[in-house]
From TrEMBL:
PANTHER family: ACETYLTRANSFERASE (PTHR43441:SF10), RIBOSOMAL-PROTEIN-SERINE ACETYLTRANSFERASE (PTHR43441). Pfam families: Acetyltransf_3 (PF13302). It comes from the Bacteria. It comes from Streptomyces violascens. This is Acetyltransferase.
Length: 206
C-alpha cells in the first residue's frame, strides 16, 4: 500500500487570509498592489534595466490595472504572492517583489523583483527579500525558496548571497533575453538555514 505524501502547506492557508503588509527599514513598506499603482507598472516596462533582466510585457494603464487585479486573484488561488515596495512617506510604489511558481503542495516558490530608479539604493530589495522569506518559510510554511538570475546580473547575485541564498550552480542557456540565451545562477534557501544578521526586523511592526 502506498501512503500518500501530505502537502507541505495545506490548501487554503493563503486563501483564508488577506495578503499582509510589512514595514521595512529605511521608511519602506511592502503592501498589496492597488489600481492606483497602474502608472508605476507602465513605467517599469520602459526602464532599460528592468526590461533587460525581467522581460516585462508592454502595458497601458488599462492593462496594468488588469494585471494588478490578476495578482489579487492569484493570491486567492494560492498561485502567487506579489507585493509593491512603497515609500511610507507618500505611499508611492517604487518596486515589486513576490513569489511566483508557488507550489504549496511541494513547499516551494521562486522570487521575482525589480526597482525603479527612484527606489534604488539603501538595500530595499535585500530587506524585502529577507522579509518575504521569513513570511514564506516561518508563517506560510514553505520549505524551499529560489532566486535565479542571469550570470550577467551581479546585482541580483549580491542580493541572493547577502540574503543567505546559497549558490547551488549554473543553469546553462536557461532563459531567453532580448540579446539571446543567458546562463542563470540558481540560489536557494531552505527552512532551517541560518538568517543573516538583522533579518529578524526586531522593533518594526508587521
Amino acid at each position: 500500500m502506498i501512503t500518500p505524501i501530505p502537502p507541505v502547506v495545506p490548501p487554503g492557508r493563503m486563501a483564508r487570509q488577506q495578503q499582509p503588509s510589512f514595514v521595512l527599514p529605511g521608511g519602506r513598506e511592502l503592501r498589496p498592489w492597488r489600481e492606483s499603482d497602474a502608472n508605476v507598472l507602465v513605467a517599469s516596462c520602459l526602464d532599460p534595466d528592468i526590461v533587460r533582466w525581467n522581460r516585462p510585457e508592454a502595458l497601458t494603464p488599462d492593462t496594468a490595472r488588469e494585471k494588478i487585479a490578476r495578482w489579487g486573484q492569484r493570491w486567492t488561488e494560492e498561485a502567487a504572492a506579489i507585493w509593491a515596495i512603497s515609500r511610507r512617506e507618500d505611499d508611492q510604489a517604487v518596486g515589486l517583489i513576490g513569489l511566483g511558481d508557488l507550489d504549496l503542495r511541494g513547499g516551494s516558490a521562486e522570487f521575482l523583483y525589480w526597482l525603479l530608479p527612484s527606489g534604488r539604493g539603501g538595500g530595499a530589495v535585500l530587506d524585502a527579500t529577507l522579509r518575504v522569506s521569513r513570511w514564506a518559510l516561518e508563517e506560510l510554511g514553505l520549505h524551499r525558496l529560489r532566486i535565479s538570475h542571469s550570470v550577467g546580473n551581479p546585482a541580483s547575485c549580491r542580493v541572493a548571497q547577502r540574503a543567505g541564498f546559497a549558490l547551488e550552480g549554473t543553469m546553462r542557456s536557461a532563459l531567453l533575453h532580448a540579446d539571446g540565451w543567458h546562463d542563470e545562477h540558481l540560489h536557494a534557501r531552505v527552512a532551517g538555514d541560518p538568517w543573516p544578521d538583522g533579518a529578524d526586523f526586531n522593533g518594526l511592526p508587521y
